[in-house]
């Protein structure tokens, strides 16, 4: 199903899921959730492992900071309110724009030109359209949920969208240095900063045109991308992820954004097979790499679809003066 059709479908699902979920999918109470009068208490302290470290396990969905409602519904009667907007705070990431609307991304000129090309082409080459892994930031912000599973030496994050699976190694290993084949999800290593913050560093990303999308609008990343995520669980129902994005090939400087997710209680991940009965791409002109061409490696020397070298692309026209 195409990106735009899936977006429309997600909106429809939001309206009907709470009423129809029990008729379509198993329903079972989430264990170890504090409750009062059968309702989850989500503003209490975060759960912890025996060693005192926060337990991030659970099914999570993007949100304003609280959680606990049914899939597609608001956060529920016990939800935490979204934090107030602070112009000096870390920008909140969104599915459409990695740093939210209005934040001036520090893109190099060639990367800004590529993003303009993608938007002018209606973002139809987004990997989500072609049922491919969509990149960590799109997964973090996708309307479909994810599930975190923690073990001693590895943390797994499964993403319902496009059936993504991410491995975060916590056994002390370094980043690979033997020029390995790059990963769609990058290569992630995690460690603890005290008992409350789980730090994840990810490098070795696939940096060609199939993979390099931070958001729906096409903010690009390259094989030089390094992401540092800081996971916190300030209360039982809230997950907060601060992500620092470094990419010297695409950015003039690093930037940091925040992702807010809410706990989904008494819900399960749904089996989502993107290519099942997929017909919408029959109506879209496929990108060259779908027709056997070598995918373009993202960088200033890449050729845009216009045939112009990305670094030589003309700047955008000046914005019209405000009336």
Series of H and E elements: HEEEHHEEEEEEEE
> Based on DSSP secondary structure assignment, what is the total number of beta strands?
11
Structural class: alpha+beta
Judging from the principal axes of the Cα atoms, what is the shape? globular
Strand content: 15-25%
Contiguous low-pLDDT stretches (5 residues minimum) are 1-23, 65-69, 72-84
* Largest sheet entry: 9 strands, mixed, barrel
The largest sheet has its strands arranged as 3-4-5-6-7-8-9-10-11
Number of discrete domains: 1
Overall mean confidence score, pLDDT = 86
CA-CA gap between termini: 41 Å
The whole-angstrom Rg is 20 Å
Discrete helix count: 3
Give the helix proportion (percent range). Answer: 10-25%
Would you spell out the secondary-structure blueprint of this structure?
Blueprint: H1 3-24, E1 35-36, E2 39-40, E3 58-62, H2 109-120, H3 136-141, E4 146-150, E5 154-159, E6 164-169, E7 187-193, E8 197-203, E9 226-235, E10 238-246, E11 255-263
Parallel strand pairs: 6-7
Antiparallel strand pairs: 1-2, 3-4, 3-11, 4-5, 5-6, 7-8, 8-9, 9-10, 10-11
């Amino acid at each position: 199903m195409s990106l735009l059709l899936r977006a429309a479908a997600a909106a429809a699902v939001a309206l009907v899921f709470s009423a129809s979920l029990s008729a379509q999918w198993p329903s079972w109470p989430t264990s170890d959730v504090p409750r009062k009068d059968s309702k989850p208490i989500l503003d209490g302290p975060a759960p912890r492992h025996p060693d005192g470290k926060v337990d991030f396990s659970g099914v999570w969905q993007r949100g304003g900071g609280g959680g606990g409602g049914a899939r597609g519904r608001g956060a529920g009667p016990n939800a935490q309110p979204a934090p107030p907007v602070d112009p000096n705070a870390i920008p909140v990431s969104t599915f459409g724009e990695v740093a939210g609307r209005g934040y001036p991304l520090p893109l190099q000129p060639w990367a800004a030109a590529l993003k303009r090309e993608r938007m002018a082409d209606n973002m139809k080459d987004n990997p989500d359209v072609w049922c491919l892994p969509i990149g960590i930031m799109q997964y973090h912000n996708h309307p479909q949920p994810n599930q975190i599973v923690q073990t001693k030496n590895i943390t797994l994050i499964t993403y319902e969208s496009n059936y993504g699976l991410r491995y975060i190694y916590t056994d002390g290993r370094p980043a690979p240095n033997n020029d390995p084949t790059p990963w769609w999800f990058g290569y992630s290593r995690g460690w603890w900063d005290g008992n409350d913050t789980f730090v994840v560093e990810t490098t070795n990303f696939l940096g060609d045109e199939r993979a390099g999308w931070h958001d729906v609008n096409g903010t690009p990343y390259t094989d030089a991308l390094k992401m540092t995520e800081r996971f916190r669980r300030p209360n039982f129902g809230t997950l907060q992820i601060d992500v620092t994005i470094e990419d010297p090939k695409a950015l003039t400087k690093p930037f940091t954004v925040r992702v807010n997710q809410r706990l989904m209680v008494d819900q399960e991940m749904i089996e989502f097979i993107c290519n099942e009965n997929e017909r919408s791409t029959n109506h879209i002109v496929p990108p060259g790499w779908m027709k056997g061409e070598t995918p373009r490696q993202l960088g200033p020397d890449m050729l845009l679809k216009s045939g112009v070298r990305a670094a030589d692309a003309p700047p955008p026209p000046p914005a019209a003066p405000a009336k």
